[in-house]
Design goal:
2 copies of one chain form a homodimer. Chain A contains 25 helices and 20 strands. Chain A is α/β, with parallel strands linked by helices and 681 residues long. Chain A has 3 domains: 301 residues, Thiamin diphosphate (ThDP)-binding fold, Pyr/PP domains (Rossmann fold, 3-Layer(aba) Sandwich); 190 residues, Rossmann fold (3-Layer(aba) Sandwich); 123 residues, Rossmann fold. The radius of gyration of chain A is 28 Å and the shape is elongated. The interface between A and B is large, with 135 and 133 residues.
């Protein structure tokens, strides 16, 4: 490519981004203008096939500074993805293909970014996934899985703690094929970063075990950027950061100031840019045919590479029929037939165990039949019980602690990073089912990543133990109260709180089967008996009647550890002449998806319904008339004493059940499922 | 102190912690045993007065690895705070003074810790507070404010991203009087940290601008620790970290393993420890009188120092009557008389403005009358509008960007760190009112710190702008949905969503007056008209009838930007023959605290009530029979189009109001305030 054409192409990227933001009259032109040379240098050497954006071994590109999305849409357009100039013109408009931040459901976009620090952490997950699959499936002569993970990030991403967590882990794990570009433009929304961010980012990344390269003239020196990429690829046991000194809004009259960060350029500014760079100032969204032609060569090379890859994979499937079939199945996004038979089932004769332990048993069984299961824990492995027997840790081989084919990740005390890395793992494809453990209360540290999983429809699984005051002595700093109300209020999240072994298996069944919905599994520290009347099938509906009283005068709806207590309470009420049914409702999201008829059979008209859950009551009115819950913080004491103190005992529930029956006596009562209308879903 | 007595004292600390955990049969003995020498070296040179644990210029001590609380209780006992041996024996028992993690309401405990990374970040806030007050009130010869902030932290704290945020800022700000001790014991719950945490912590802290000192034999070399403390004090423009290589569970048969981290020592292990160290193996909780005597000297010196300080402060008040009176007032925790008159009020003649702008106006007014107001923003200052005119940035003087008497903190893109630093600022005392701004959706990044503010009753203020889909084009990654439901479900949080200028002033009034409850102020990006019928006084009740219809057949309860839309809807309904009242309910927490009579007057029996808020509906059934909300993610488009798309328009609300009226026609209807019983509060 001539350097003249190269410069023209780079300025085309800049101006398309400027025009895109300008047309929307909203968005962020500055970073695209500064990073255009790096984008050009990177994308012209990437393995990508716009005709098949899901080719498993494509290079991954993550725009962690997601507000610079006009750059990404521009690249997708120029390289031949299904983004037209018209799509660019619809930037940030209702129902367009080009929303204000990258959204993973769109073609060519790997992960949803915008909330700062998430993308670079997703990239760590994508790189782990590549390494794990490469070390699992590749054979001599069959480099089936072999791609780089590239990421752009800015100062904002580096200020966020989540990036610290993920980058520290990436260094520890020695992810040599992760290459990140630090857009060091020294400008944030508040102005020059000298006011708030003066750390030495390179030194910090080195302290994590990264290699750091620098290009000090990245506005203009494309060759230096390309050379740095080549050098980064040689670093095979360390992630690399290429620090690019850039000028935000390069070329603009306001370049190098905060004003080009998040506002469209003024007309006269756009004009002078186009004139300066030899573009027609009266024409917007212009691309020379030579520029299209050049970039289309990259796409063609990618398409050819995929063809060769397809042939290689066919050969592989003949030579390694078992592994080949397995990988082929995974690429189709299918689970192994009959995998669910591995899930344990229980009868009341089985002994009482904590649901964290039931989870461990389930994981142990399914890990054997699901090679796509990749799990870990934020350092609480012996408490979360998330590591199955004989699991291999995902570790750099030279540590002697595991290898990069391992499927158990030691996340360290890094919940937020873990959440984003789990998202990245699942976003890689190949049906990866990623889970991560911590205490339920500390899922909150990672909740912004859970939210993004929900928004971008990534079915990760949070194994969240120590799910209530039932954890006892650690006290209120560790006892979740608002946590389930919070997660249930996030659209598109399953929040399972199983009551026994069968319900725990049901939770795993639905969580693993899910293709678009993440799950949180809230599990006890304390023992739970195996219930009469539970089954995997029934619990898989999200809610079901576990104790059916004839002519019930009251229904208790409960979850998790409160189901057995409610069953005991129902017996007390029965003895008092109040026939009481008990509904176990381990997951509201799944229950909501059942037929109206079924739901109405569980929560019928005419009977008062009381919900019982030893956490915040918010949200329970959807399924009950009255709520018994804990709208205060817990306390530090042995668990049994706490349940007594707060009256989450058979007696305490029965007392409230009776009050409920008396309160509604003689009143016409509709099921809470009846509503004149429903919220917007 | 003889080295023999010193050793005896240190072993006494170790054994008291071991016995405390042993008696509870629950807790963490390992870190106390490893850190006892550092605790001894530190506390014997600290400025503390057990007789007045709230002396303003005491040295602060934060145990960021809060699980090691048995160490802290032991120290508090030995140094003469109001913790008896009996209290130690009640460790982790119901209603004891010694819960499982440090809780700030207990004597001598500065901040609530346990959730990792929070404490060290609180310490940054405590150190900022000290510097800010020192630079505000001290005069030559009057070193009124002059203390160090000390902090213990472990590997877990350093793995958490929050510590990265806070420590980076501490380095930037040059907090020379912050001295942290890194308990580098190489053990986490999962085992040796080689499996998950191999970064160079010292180098990382240096990259933030810290000074790092090391003591490689911190199990035994008390002198080296003392020397390091002395050296750290000489570093006046950098925070210092003293890295202590220690042995977790020092002396135990299982020392240096994960098994001593979180489980009591076995009886035979305790026995050998006591024998080895010359204690009676049959005696628990033993303290030699010489040890008590020695530590009591520190307390005596502290009491004397406070006496001298009191005399100095009296002299100061004479010499600097204005500043003296101001500081005296602040030390009493009182606000200036009549300060609330500074809050702006509005009439419908005033123009429509966004509530983020109304917040800016309010802050500008109260900053002048409240020297205790210390604010900032997580880099979004021009969007959050949190910086009042003429504010001085809190910056190291040598930067030329401000000084350490400044009251505006450039937090950078560090929401979680900001939250914990705000908590630390307020925990310092002197009535500091700390606030911090970000987008409402990114308060979620810092929610674990908000939760700790609620738990430990710290009245910080989150200024949370861009509070709904009303932010428009940035799209669903930035649009809060579950956020208010989440915060309202946390016990002890005010969640204000004001509808206009008077309500914004009411929110500030209550937030600033609060002594025990943190606030989140959810504010719009888009303009809001000044409403007929609003007032600071009425809004200060948390909820009130803003439109009273005669013989109302429907009540609409709304917040924020939906109040005006609901008022318009009420007009449409009125025209359809449905007289409709409108209730503005800007804060549920405050409304809940009103008398039953008042609440019932706002939400009476017999009238159907519909809530309207363009966010998740969870929690609204407490105040309404039907909920109109957004239980899905938003979208990227101009705000007006989004409100139309989701029908949050006068017509959309009126339609649902009519459905509600029809649905309940002829049915007996109780106010949702009626319940047979209430959740545990």
């Amino acid at each position: 490519m001539s350097s003249e054409l190269e410069q023209r192409a780079i300025n085309t990227i800049r101006l398309l981004a400027v025009d895109t933001v300008g047309k929307a009259n909203s968005g962020h032109p500055g970073a695209p203008m500064g990073m255009a040379p790096a984008a050009h240098a990177l994308w012209t050497q990437m393995k990508l096939n716009p005709k098949d954006p899901n080719w498993i071994t494509r290079d991954r590109f993550v725009l962690s500074n997601g507000h610079a999305v006009a750059l990404l849409y521009t690249l997708l357009h120029l390289f031949g993805y299904n983004y037209s100039i018209e799509d660019l013109k619809q930037f940030r408009q209702l129902d367009s293909k080009t929303p204000g931040h990258p959204e993973a459901e769109s073609e060519g976009i790997e992960v949803t970014t915008g909330p700062l620090g998430q993308g670079v952490s997703n990239a760590v997950g994508l790189a782990i996934a590549e390494a794990q699959l490469r070390n699992t499936y590749n054979k001599p002569g069959f480099d089936l899985i072999d791609n780089y993970t590239y990421c752009f990030f800015g100062d904002g991403c580096m200020m966020e703690g989540i990036s610290s967590e993920a980058c520290s882990l990436a260094g520890h794990l020695g992810l040599g094929k992760l290459i990140a570009f630090y857009d060091s433009n020294s400008i944030s929304i508040d102005g020059n970063i000298e006011i708030e961010f003066t750390e030495d980012v390179g030194k910090r990344l080195e302290s994590y075990g990264w290699e750091v390269l620098e290009v000090s003239d990245a506005d203009t020196n494309v060759k230096a950027i390309s050379d740095a990429i080549a050098a980064a690829k040689k670093s095979t046991d360390k992630p690399t950061c290429i620090k690019l000194t850039t000028t935000i809004g390069y070329g603009s009259l306001n370049e190098a100031t905060a004003s080009v960060h998040g506002s469209p350029l003024k007309p006269e500014d756009k004009r002078q840019l186009k004139e300066k760079w030899g573009f027609n100032p009266d024409q917007d969204f212009h691309v020379d045919q030579e520029v299209y032609d050049y970039y289309s060569k990259i796409a063609e090379a990618g398409a050819k590479a995929e063809e060769e890859w397809n042939a290689l994979f066919e050969k592989y499937q003949k030579e390694f029929p078992e592994l080949g079939a397995e990988l082929a199945r995974r690429l189709k996004g299918e689970l192994p037939q009959g995998w669910e038979k591995a899930l344990p089932t229980y009868t009341p004769a089985d002994k009482a165990v904590a649901s964290r332990k039931l989870s461990e048993i389930a994981l142990g069984e399914i890990a054997n039949v699901l090679p796509e299961l990749v799990g870990g824990s934020a350092d609480l492995t012996p408490s979360n019980l998330t590591r199955w027997k004989d699991a291999t840790d995902f570790q750099s081989e030279k540590t002697g602690l595991g290898n990069q084919g391992g499927r158990y990740i030691r996340y360290g005390v890094r919940e937020h990073g873990m959440g984003a890395i789990m998202n990245g793992l699942a976003a890689y494809g190949a049906n990866i089912k990623s889970y991560g453990g911590t205490f339920l209360n500390f899922v909150s540290y990672g909740a912004p990543a859970l939210r993004l999983a929900a928004l971008s429809q990534i079915p990760v699984i949070w194994v969240a133990t120590h799910d209530s005051i039932g954890l006892g002595e650690d006290g209120p700093t560790h006892q979740p109260i608002e946590t389930l109300a919070h997660f249930r209020a996030i659209p598109n999240v399953m929040v399972w709180r199983p009551a026994d072994g069968n319900e725990t298996s049901a939770a795993y069944l639905k969580a693993i089967e899910s293709k678009t919905t993440p799950s949180v599994l809230a599990l006890t520290r304390q023992g739970l008996p195996q219930l009469e009347g539970s089954s995997v099938e029934k619990a898989s509906k999200g809610g079901y009647t576990i104790v059916e009283a004839k002519d019930a005068k009251l229904i208790i709806v409960a979850t998790g550890s409160e189901v057995i207590t409610s069953i005991e309470a129902a017996k007390l009420l029965e003895a008092q002449g109040v026939p009481t049914s008990v509904v176990s409702l381990p997951d509201q999201f799944t229950f909501d998806s059942q037929s109206d008829e079924y739901k109405k059979s569980v929560l019928p008209d005419g009977v008062p319904i009381i919900s019982v859950e030893v956490l915040a009551t918010a949200g329970w009115s959807k399924y009950s008339h009255v709520q018994f819950g804990l709208d205060r913080f817990g306390a530090s004491a042995p668990a049994g004493e706490l349940f007594k103190k707060f009256e989450f005992t058979p007696e305490g529930i029965a007392k409230r059940g009776k009050l409920t029956v008396d309160f509604y006596a003689g009143k016409e009562l509709l099921s809470p499922l009846n509503k004149p209308f429903f919220p917007i879903h």
